[in-house]
Amino acid sequence: MRNWIATAGLARGARLPPERELCATLGVSRAELRKALLVLEADGALERHVGRGTFLAKAPRPSRGGTGVDATIAALAETTGPVEAMNARLALEPEIAQRAALHATPKQLRELRRLADAMREATSWGAYEQLDSEFHATIAAASGNSLLQSLHRILNGVRQAVVWRRLNTTDRGPDPAYHSFNEHDAIFAALENRDGTAAGAAMRAHLDSTLSLMTTSPSD
Q1: What is the DSSP letter of 164?
Q2: pLDDT beyond 80 at 144
Q3: Does residue 170 register a pLDDT over 60?
Q4: Which of 75, 74, 60 is CA-nearest to residue 13?
Q5: Which of 117, 118, 153 is nearest to 138 (CA)?
Q6: Residues 6 or more apart from 29 whose CB is under 8 A from it?
Q7: End-to-end Cα distance, the chain
């Protein structure tokens, strides 16, 4: 994918071809392509906009050898397995949710409700993935702890690359009975009720469910 970008002759900020076309050009599966796109997005080479597509970054950051969170995400995404990423989430995100129950602002709670509702309406997996990422990132921001939020940003970036992009998903989006919908609602309800214990438990149940499905079927 890096070689294709270097030789495609696209201007900075240009939109990439559709995924189906790129898969045919590069001779890779949709899952393989999506993992590559997420690694390049974390590396600063690409920008993704829900409903619009994936674009070359207008001002790309240095890739390998760069510094900061994005370089860390890109490096870890190439050395971390899906189960390892999910276990790291289990170690961190329930604690974040518990703190968010105490510190979330009304504005953050409204945003979480909007995101949870929007996920049910997502018409593609790409749109769902972006909304899901924003949902968990908003909870991290609501924790009131900037260090935890930074750790979560790294973890969230890595899990997008190594968990989401390994899944064989269709373009039509999640099924109406997708397990995460009700699990997100349970997390939100606990946060809204300012119940830290329940928020932590709901987050753990959600992550346990995702991990269980990941390890017993080809897609969750």
Answers
A1: G
A2: yes
A3: no
A4: 60
A5: 153
A6: 23, 168
A7: 26
